[in-house]
Amino acid sequence: MDKIAILIPCFNEEQTIAKVVGDARKTLPEAVVYVYDNNCTDGTARLAEEQGAIVRREYRQGKGNVIRRMFREIDAECYLMLDGDDTYPLDCAREMADRVLEHGADMVVGDRLSSTYFQENKRLFHNFGNSLMRTGINSLFRADIKDIMTGYRALSYEFVKTFPVFSQGFEIETEMTIHAVNYNMQVENVVVEYRDRPDGSMSKLNTYSDGLRVIRKMVQLYRNYRPLHFFGAFCVLLVVLALLIMIPILSEYLRSGLVPRFPTLIVCGFMVLAGIQSFFAGIILEVMAAKDKRDFEYRLMGTSAEKRRKKADDR
């Protein structure tokens, strides 16, 4: 088991990877640097190896697929994850690792949005999307995560080995954040500097298609983790809409004692029934979600015991 493992997923980062690996080894000389080549067509892998990184490969395209492979193959007391594009200075790396190793944090978020992100990032919709996701997730899950989409994080062994990776692409950061919040794991924020990509280095994030996938993932996880709130909202919406449609029918009935629009009344009745059904579906799924949280605590205790055994074996 490594003390600190630095994880760098890469797809064609030839221009910056040598500097990123070199800075990582200088800042945390005791750490093992892993670079995962996600079908690079340039010299990324060769340059990383020349700088002393361990290079491995993931042939399924997508950042989520790379992180799934990393988490499965590497055992470490602390994982420091960052991108290979040299947008994250390493001056906060020691503090982030210590938050995991000394303070017992499960996830330390490298908070770009509280420092230089909005000044350095020239892509307007990226700025808007990051602010939207931060507001949305913190409101829906009653959290206080300063940067939802950051790729700069420190993670504990317990988090990594109990986190089921379902995302294939850039929505992985959203999934990690919501997983930590939902299971009441210890999350801390560290403000980090951000610098835009150097000239000639191209972002692999598609603003619109990847942005839509991130929003869809947030809604999907809200449905899975807060089912009573999710389906309860549908219940309220259907019942209120049915009552609004019924107002003219009810007024006519009170005035004349007649019901002239039976089809509309029948539709309203079905809408109310659908709302009630949605509410009870939410209750059932909420019970299942509560059971999942209890099961997760047992898995977490088992993972902690496994970590202690591996550390003892290393000694």
List strands and helices in order, with pairings:
Elements: E1 2-10, H1 17-27, E2 32-37, H2 44-50, E3 54-57, H3 63-73, E4 76-81, H4 93-101, E5 107-111, H5 117-120, H6 124-141, E6 153-156, H7 157-162, H8 172-182, E7 187-191, H9 207-225, H10 227-256, H11 262-314
Parallel strand pairs: 1-2, 1-4, 2-3, 5-7
Antiparallel strand pairs: 4-6, 5-6
Q: Report the span from N to C terminus.
A: 10 Å
Query: How big is the Rg?
Result: 24 Å
Order of helices and strands: EHEHEHEHEHHEHHEHHH
| Strands, count | 7
Summed over residues and divided by their number, the pLDDT gives a mean of: 91
Strand order of the largest sheet: 3-2-1-4-6-5-7
The main pleated sheet reads as:
7 strands, mixed
Molecular shape: elongated
Please mark out the parts with pLDDT under 50 across 5 or more consecutive residues, or reply none: none
Beta-strand fraction estimate: 5-15%
What's the helix count? 11
- Residues in helices, as a percent range: 55-70%
Q: Which structural category fits the helices and strands?
A: alpha/beta
Report on this model:
The chain is of the alpha/beta class and 315 residues long. Helix content is 57%, strand content 12%. The chain has 11 helices and 7 strands. The chain has a 7-stranded mixed sheet with strand order 3-2-1-4-6-5-7, sandwiched between helices. The longest helix is centred in the C-terminal third of the chain and has 53 residues, at 262-314. The model has no long low-confidence stretch (mean pLDDT 91).
